[in-house]
Design brief:
By secondary structure, the protein is mainly β. The chain has helices spanning 24-34, 94-103, and strands at residues 12-21, 38-43, 50-56, 65-71, 87-91, 108-114, 122-127, 133-138. It is globular, with a radius of gyration of 17 Å.
């Protein structure tokens, strides 16, 4: 940026974009069969009523993924609304960035910390000025691609 006034040196890239879907199998078929994306991995969320899959044109370390999320709660329960999507940006030095963003008054839903207990990967969730969620991640662990493994 020509008028970049930032005081930190952090590299950024889109990690994934999330879309809520009504039927994950139908959506997987659309994106893989018609748009030739591959399944990068499934995200298992025990205790949560969702199915999630990440699709991409390559590995997630080098290509932006599309995360599809289906709410599997019984009919009548609150569904994921179409505007409930979020963006995820991978950064280097999330702790430094988090400190800079806090000093600028950015609202945090989740401060920078481990993605899950026992993991090295870091996650912070912030809100943009309109209240949209942005997940900021710093990756330390590479993942091998996972197949659908009987989820069809």
């Amino acid at each position: 940026m020509e008028n970049d006034k930032s005081t930190y040196r952090v590299k950024f890239r889109f990690r994934h974009l999330m879309l809520p879907v009504k039927n994950i199998e139908r959506s997987i078929d659309f994106y893989t069969r018609l748009l030739k994306m591959g399944i990068a991995r499934w995200r298992d969320s025990e205790g949560r009523n969702i199915k999630a899959v990440f699709l991409s044109y390559g590995d997630e370390e080098n290509h932006t993924a599309l995360e599809l999320v289906e709410n599997t709660e019984p009919q009548g329960s609150a569904a994921i609304k179409p505007w409930d999507g979020h963006i995820s940006i991978q950064v280097q030095d999330l702790l430094e960035l988090g400190n800079c963003l806090q000093s600028e008054g950015v609202r945090f839903i989740r401060p920078a910390g481990p993605l899950r207990p026992g993991r090295k990967d870091l996650l912070a969730i912030i809100l943009d000025p309109d209240g949209y969620q942005i997940a900021l991640t710093e990756r330390f662990e590479k993942r091998a691609p996972q197949s659908m493994g009987g989820r069809a």
